[in-house]
Design a protein that fits this description.
Helix content is 48%, strand content 12%. By secondary structure, the protein is an alpha/beta fold. A 7-stranded mixed beta sheet has the order 3-2-1-4-6-5-7, with helices on both faces.
Length: 315
């Protein structure tokens, strides 16, 4: 099979028939064999009934229904597990992603050799309250990951099947799939300018909280990518540094007290000095951070996947 199209959907019953018809037309024109996997993420409207109807009318359409709303990452992860196509394409269900982009996204994987290709909505039909935070978020993601994409969160992406079978999308990590792919050993990530269409049906399902969650998820994946299997390299170094800075300050305070005492100079009681408590706090925090790194190492070394590596080939 050439292509699997994965469509996460939440309360998008109005747009699904038009989207499936559009996808089918593009696939037939380019003679692609394909499947469309629509994941109903706990919709409260008639989305599942529409999916069932489409599945009975169109052989290539398949559906998965969640019992409740789990989020886009969960929907994508289930879609990735079920996808059989050589190239996997994800797109949103709201018709803001154009299926006309599919042939070129497919070609960039098969012909140009990219591991994955991310869409870039260069011209967006979104309010400024959404576009400005998005630009800031993309800037932070570029700096943290070293992957220079303009639009990390674009729903329109294409992948080699091998890529999606080697990553796990959880929580709200769908924003950082390029980072997950790079971490899994697929660094050849491309970008394509895609058409962003204005919303035709319904309303957006994302609020302002996604920017806060996105920033926290960025911190999580950055830390896990760099220190997930070696937490002592972070906590141990930071803890040791804080401990010895506190210890040096403590020696300085103690040495000064002894010097003044032996020379008959009146000096402030150590217990009355704020720097003494700063030194003590620094040493305690350093010790706690070091122990956190040590415990993290013990957990990491006992994890089931501690020696699982992505081997490309062997002879």
């Amino acid at each position: 099979m050439h292509i699997s199209v994965i469509v996460p959907s939440y309360n998008e019953f109005e747009s699904l028939p038009e989207l499936c018809s559009w996808i089918g037309r593009v696939m037939d024109e380019n003679k692609f064999s394909y499947e469309v996997i629509i994941v109903d993420d706990g919709s409260t409207d008639n989305t599942w009934k529409v999916i069932q109807q489409l599945s009975s009318e169109i052989e290539q359409v398949k559906g998965v229904k969640f019992r409740r709303n789990y989020g886009k990452s969960a929907a994508l992860n289930v879609g990735f597990e079920k996808a059989k196509g050589d190239v996997v394409i994800t797109m949103d269900a709201d018709l803001q992603d154009s299926p006309d982009e599919i042939p070129q996204l497919y070609s960039m994987i098969v012909t140009d050799g990219f591991d994955m290709v991310s869409g870039w909505k260069q011209k967006r039909f979104d309010p400024i309250t959404k576009t400005i935070p998005t630009k800031l978020y993309n800037w932070a993601a570029r700096k943290a990951s070293g992957i220079y994409l303009h639009d990390f969160n674009c729903g329109l992406k294409s992948y080699k099947n091998e890529v999606i079978k080697n990553i796990e999308v959880y929580g709200e990590m769908h924003r950082y799939i390029p980072m997950l792919a790079k971490r899994a050993g697929f660094p050849n990530i491309g970008e394509k300018v895609v058409v962003h269409q204005s919303r035709k049906y319904g309303v957006t399902k994302f609020g302002i909280e996604r920017f806060v969650n996105g920033f926290l998820d960025l911190m999580t994946i950055t830390f896990v990518s760099k220190f997930g299997k070696k937490p002592m390299h972070f906590f141990g170094v930071l803890g040791t540094l804080m401990f010895f800075l506190g210890l040096l300050l403590f020696f300085y305070i103690g040495g000064s007290k002894l010097y003044y005492t032996f020379n008959g100079v009146s000096a402030t009681n150590i217990a009355d000095m704020s720097s003494f408590y700063i030194a003590l706090t620094s040493m305690l925090m350093g010790l706690q951070l070091f122990l956190a790194g040590f415990i993290g190492e013990m957990i990491s070394r006992n994890a089931e996947d501690r020696n699982q590596y992505h081997i490309e080939e062997s002879v």
